[in-house]
Structure formats: C-alpha cells, structure tokens
Fold this protein.
Amino acid sequence: MRKTSVTTISTEDTFDQARRLAAQLKPGDVVALCGGVGAGKTVFVKGLAAALGIMDPIASATFTIVEEYPGTLPLIHADLYRLNSVVEAVDVGLEELMSTTAGIVVVEWADKAPELFPTGTVWVSIAIQSDGSRRITQFRTCNGETQ
Ligand SMILES: Nc1ncnc2c1ncn2[C@@H]1O[C@H](COP(=O)(O)OP(=O)(O)OP(=O)(O)O)[C@@H](O)[C@H]1O
Ligand SMILES: [Mg+2]
C-alpha cells in the first residue's frame, strides 16, 4: 500500500474512503486512527464496519475501550482517548489483541500509544482543514518504513 492522501468534503465521503481501505485489508490487520476530536475517526470505523457487513450500530468505544462486532471478519474497535499512558493500553490487552486477532483491529487515538502497534499497521490520520474538509493520509508501516 502506497502512502496516499485524499480530501473528503462530507461525512459520506470519509465513510466511503474507509470502505475502500477495507477492500485492501486481510485478517489480522490493524488500523491505527489519529486525528483530533470530531475529525471523523468514528465515521471511518463505521465505513470499515459497513464493508465487513456489520449490521450492529457502532457505538462509541470511548468508555468501554474495546468492542467487538461479528462480520465477514470480526471488527475489534478500540478507543484510547481515556487512557493516560501506554501502560494502561497494555493493561486493557491491546497489544495482545493486535497480535492474536483473526479479524480487523481498528484503534481510535492510536497516537496515544504508537509504540504498541505492530509492523504492518495501517496508519490513517484525519486532519480537519480550515474549510471543514478532512485531509485523510494513510500508509502501511513496513520495517519502520512506509511502503
Ligand atoms: N469530511 C468529513 N469527514 C468525516 N466527518 C465529517 C466530515 N465533515 C463533517 N463531519 C462530521 O464530523 C463529525 C465527526 O465525528 P466522529 O465522531 O467521527 O469524530 P471522531 O474523530 O471519532 O471524534 P472523537 O475524538 O470524539 O472520537 C461527525 O458529526 C461528521 O458528520
Ligand atoms: Mg470517535
């Protein structure tokens, strides 16, 4: 996967970007989402979920930290917003989850614990532009380099 950047001008647009990414994912993949409050990380998770045929509504994982949804591949949705340290992320079993899952793990606020993410993680950052559009940049890490 090459590093790509796109600008989305609507919620649906961001949702569709996630659907497009989902088509490139394989079992065990990890998607690390970065971006400020209201950037569209949860919208992106909903797009991934739709592509995996998940009917259940995607709830905020802010308080539960980790939620799992059955789909064509299971989707594990985590949100690190409330965590204060990498140690806490380890405590909720995130590292373990990412190394053992047969599904897709998607993590909001991944930049709170970047060192936990395995090589091969797909990093997606969403930045709100001054005109309200979103700049979405994504790449997969490979031995510390982008590919
Ligand atoms: N281009 C866009 N892409 C994504 N969301 C957009 C866009 N334009 C407007 N929005 C709106 O911005 C909001 C994004 O909310 P969302 O919950 O996905 O953000 P978040 O990054 O998950 O925030 P949080 O850090 O609180 O979890 C939604 O209300 C969505 O409709
Ligand atoms: Mg969110």
